[in-house]
Amino acid sequence: MEAHLTEWLNLTIRWIHMIVGVAWIGASFYFVWLENNLDRRNPREGLSGDLWAIHGGGIYHLEKYKLAPPQMPENLHWFKWEAYSTWLSGFALLMVVYYLNPGVYLLAPGSSLSPAQAVLVGLGALIAGWFIYDLLCESALGKHPALLGLTLFVLIVFAAWGFSQVFSGRAAYIHTGALIGTIMVGNVFRTIMPAQRALVAAIEQNREPDPALPAKGLLRSRHNNYFTLPVLFIMISNHFPSTYGSHYNWLILAAISVLAVLVRHYFNTRHATGKFAWALPLAALGMISLAFVTSGRLGTPATPAPNAQPAAQQAPAAREFDKVSAVIHERCTVCHSAQPTSPLFSAAPAGVMFDTPQQIQQMAPRIQAQAVTNQIMPLGNITQMTQQERDLIGAWIANGAALDK
Questions:
Q1: 83 contacts 163 by C-beta, under 8 angstroms
Q2: How many domains are contained in the chain?
Q3: Which tens digit of pLDDT belongs to each residue from 245-280?
Q4: Are 94 and 178 in contact, with CB atoms under 8 Å apart?
Q5: Among 372, 336, 367, which residue's Cα sits nearest to residue 354?
Q6: Considering 109, 200, 311, 324, which has the largest number of Cβ atoms within 10 A of its Cβ?
Q7: What is the per-residue pLDDT for 34?
Q8: What is the per-residue pLDDT for 2?
Q9: Transmembrane region positions (predicted)?
């Protein structure tokens, strides 16, 4: 029952995280679009531009002030709880998935850290990451946005590499995303919202607003905008072990993040200029190249066909599958069974079961990817699958994944 309740708790928090995350990112994308589409020709006094739009059967007229209107409106809508709710639900998900069972999802097999130490490393990295980021933005680098952006990228990639040295690949990715998410919500809480409150207070007190504060908030808002696509990739990455399961997972994450930032920059600028249109085909080519590189086909000999080996070296299919079946039932069916014996699961994860020979044969490609190539299964290697056993399964699959007749 405990595993069942944990699974539903995971589902509920994950669903909330997705809903509020969509709201936050959607608002961010909309306001960047709005900023890029303002008509700035001959604006009315005090305005920096306006925009006419049609949506949902109605016509809207939006105006942006250079700083603020002469008098504050009675109702002013703020955008903050989307960000706070996304971070809070994300942190709750981090606790449920990784910190409640650190030996399963958080720690890499053979890690020298204890579960408690791993949790402290994760939490400490989030806190230190925000303060380092904030310090850099407030330093002289803050006056050079391009150089600041490059510095931040290098440091985040370094953090991803560091996480990959002590955490499982999946946990390394998620902690990189949590680090970026913490920076993003810190920008809202510590910079963007205070700047907006100062602006409103200045108007209510009939004094000239300080233009430096909105400018600082705009810089942090732009950072958040460019962070969104890498974070979205990280949110779905746990479904793709060929990325986080690779020995070079941090480098794959860096490459995908660069492509994502290029795509985001194209959409940010496409209404003002078309000179970044090359970013879309480059991103597509980059993803295809990454798929090829991570397939393991570069620099490694092709797997020989089943009949390429001398007959004397080929094990009979029946004996081969008997050995494979014994390994899978010992190492894998504690979770992947109609009736899991692991206390972590009340039902087979992702519906994958290895109770029958036919189920094992059907799932051979996924077994190859998860347990042989990337070696991310069993989770945290809690059942202690050996390299010899992984090699045995890999050889069986390479020989055609035949069953005992």
A1: no
A2: 2
A3: 888 899 999 999 999 999 999 988 887 777 889 999
A4: yes
A5: 336
A6: 324
A7: 87
A8: 67
A9: 15-34, 81-100, 112-133, 145-164, 170-189, 248-267, 276-294
Average pLDDT, the chain: 85
Is residue 300 domain-resident? Answer: no
Neighbours of 325 (CB within 10 A): 18
pLDDT in tens, 143-201: 899 999 999 999 999 999 999 999 988 899 999 999 999 999 999 999 999 988 888 88
Q: Give the pLDDT confidence score for residue 362 in this predicted structure.
A: 85
Q: How far apart are CA 254 and CA 241, in angstroms?
A: 16
Q: What are phi and psi of 38, to 5 degrees?
A: -65, 140
The HSE-up count of residue 251 (CA atoms within 13 Å, CB side) is: 6
> Which two structure tokens, joined as six digits, stand for 35?
């900023």
Q: Say if CB 295 and CB 271 are below 8 A apart.
A: no
d(CA 90, CA 21): 9
Residues 240, 173 contacting (CB under 8 angstroms): no
The three-point CA angle 344-350-353 to 5° equals 85
Tell whether 255 and 345 lie within a shared domain: no
Domain boundary among 264, 294, 324: 294
pTM, entire model: 0.77
Are 285 and 367 in the same domain?
Answer: no
Distance of CA 195 to the CA centre of its chain: 29
